[in-house]
Design goal:
With 100 residues, the chain is α+β, with helices and mostly antiparallel strands. It has 4 helices and 2 strands; from the N terminus they run H-E-E-H-H-H. The chain has a single domain (2-93), classed as Alpha-Beta Plaits (2-Layer Sandwich), CATH 3.30.70. Strands 1-2 form a two-stranded antiparallel ribbon. Strand 1 (15-22) and strand 2 form a beta hairpin. The longest helix is centred in the middle third of the chain and has 19 residues, at 38-56. It starts with a helix and ends in a 7-residue tail after the last helix. Residues 1-95 form the Transposase IS200-like domain.
Length: 100
């Protein structure tokens, strides 16, 4: 999924600085220019990743027929202009679910 997200970001002339998450959500730290609309970037990240992951993983394809969606329609975006990037990176890195 990270490869897909990086490619989409590159298409928008953005940089995916950090990627992590858990089984039910993802955390992305993205550097992007002011000309990029966050809503369009998120829509593309979700749409492209959904299409490519369904194509690669057959189980996901069948889940869609049962009404299951890979992504919800919601997202959270926050500006971190005032926080040191190292603090934000550390937060995202700590979001990984521990191995069981």
């Amino acid at each position: 999924m990270e490869e897909i997200m990086r490619a989409v970001c590159e298409d928008f002339e953005c940089e995916l600085a950090e990627f992590n998450g858990e089984t039910n959500h993802a955390h992305l730290l993205v550097n992007f220019p002011p000309k990029v609309a966050v809503s369009k970037l998120v829509n593309s990240l979700k749409g492209v990743s959904s299409r490519l992951l369904r194509k690669e993983f057959e189980d996901l394809r069948f889940a869609y027929w049962k009404g299951v969606r890979l992504w919800s329609g919601s997202y959270f975006a926050g500006s971190v202009g005032g926080a040191p990037i190292s603090v934000v990176r550390q937060y995202i890195e700590q979001q990984a679910r521990p191995s069981v």
